[in-house]
Each structure stands twice: as C-alpha cells, then as structure tokens.
Amino acid sequence: MGYSLENPLDYSGDDGKPLVALFAAEADHDAAISDEPTVSVRRDAVAQIRKAAEPPCSVGPSTAYLAVTYLDRFLTKRVTQVKKPWFSVFLSLTCLSLASKMLDHGFSVDEFQATQPFQFMPGTIERMQLLVLESLGWRLRSITPFAFLDCFLSSFPSTDPRQVQDLKDRASKTLFQAQTEEMLLGFKPSVIAASALYSAAFDLLPAQFTDFESVVSSSFSLDPEKIRVCREIMRKVNTNRCDLAAAKKVVSGSDTPLAAIEPGGEGDTIRGSGSDGRDDKKQILPTI
C-alpha cells in the first residue's frame, strides 16, 4: 500500500473514518526533545538532511520532511551521548534512506557520502537502519501535519478552488520551513497544521480568517491557545529564515577530504530499548 504525507493511512473512504484514525494516531505523539545534547544532534542532523535537498543529492521536500520526522521520533526514544561529529551525518543518512524507500523516491547513498567527510560501510548503514526501525516500533507510516490540511480546508468558507489551493500551498511552504525548529516538537501534527493554515489565511484572505479560525477550532476541538503559541513560533522561524538567507549568500564552505572513520572513544553511546552494548570494530558506532 502506498504512503504519502497527505494520506499516511492510505484510506480512500469518505465516511469520516480517516479523520478519526488520524486523530487517534496522533494521540501517541511523542514528547518534545529538551536535553541539550540531543537538541544539538538534532540540529546538526536536520542541517545535513536539508543539505541533501541540494545537488548532487537533490532529494525532494517530502523525502526530507519524512526523514526529519523519523529523526525526531528516534531521538525521543533514544538517549544519545555520542559526541563525535560523524554521528549526526550517520543518523541523517539513515533517516533519508528509510524515507526514500517509504516514499519510493530515489536516494543515492554514494552521492550523499560524496559530500561528507565521512564514509560508512553498507553493513554499518543497515545495522543503523535496524536500530532506527526498532526505535520507531517498525511503524513507518508517520502522521505529519500534511495529513490534516485537506481536512481543515474543507471548512474554509470559499467555493473558489484557487483560493483553497493557494492556502494549501502557503501552509505547505510554512510547514517545510518551520520543521527545523525543535520547539514545534511539543505540538501535535493537527495543531501544527491548523497553525500553518491560520497563518496562510491571515496573510492571503484576511476577510475570511476569523470565520475560518472559528469553524476549524470548534469543529475539531483544537486548543486556540496552543495554536496561538505555535503560530508565533512559526512566525519567528520564518522571519529568522529570511535573515539567514541573506547572510548565507556571503558565507562559503570549504570541501573537506573524505576520511574513513573508526569507532570512537569512551562516552559515545546510544541507549534505549534493544541496546546490547556490543563493541564491534567493523561498525561506525562503538555501542548500539
């Protein structure tokens, strides 16, 4: 059965069951990441995934988004104490490869590694994939905010399909941009989706914003205060992104020679369910 961000459950009925299933699935939403070491790993890994959206990898936005979703779910299940710079690269590579398989999109591990100062053996990558899959409970059909967009848009007070599509496009753009912010991890996908749509409606169709907000919040029992806070976080993220885009033009990176990496020293561990504490010198991670 196929998977997409907008239809993660691959359900085509119109009897309301998809919506019930979506809200039921997001009830298991993981808590936010709070400890600084894990936040640091996330930031570095997200940067690597975003980098993969550029040539030569050029992964699509849906693949990148799903990869970050897997990353976040993994980090909420595992306590990471890996202090080596290669770990975020390794984790981003693993999540990208899993996301590309789930969406049936092409992703070249070789092209990704060609842009990195580290190389990983195929067997090592497979072992890390198994670790991530185990942490995800072997559930790859992640519920993302995109799954709620059409549902909420059905309440928009307009019969003009162009207006509805414009709102969806603007909200989707906001979701892709805002995913880098770890503070959003504390919100359920439905709240994030509503926040992105409210922001889009406020900007594009302000005359209809109040009615749209009222209908969606009441119809789907969404917390207005959580949406308000989420919208404010998104606004700050997008503002900072514009500032960073201007600065990026004057910043140039340097190529780093490829180097095979060896297992690190003490203190580089990942703990969680299924950790066996083995030290295999053929693996990139000394303890998984």
Automatic annotation (TrEMBL):
Stretches for region Disordered: 256-288
Cyclin C-terminal domain boundaries: 143-264
SUPFAM superfamilies in alphabetical order: Cyclin-like (SSF47954)
One GO term (biological process): cell division
Biased composition, class Basic and acidic residues, residue ranges: 276-288
Keywords (A to Z) from UniProt: Cell cycle, Cell division, Cyclin
Protein's name in the database: Cyclin C-terminal domain-containing protein
Superkingdom in the source lineage: Eukaryota
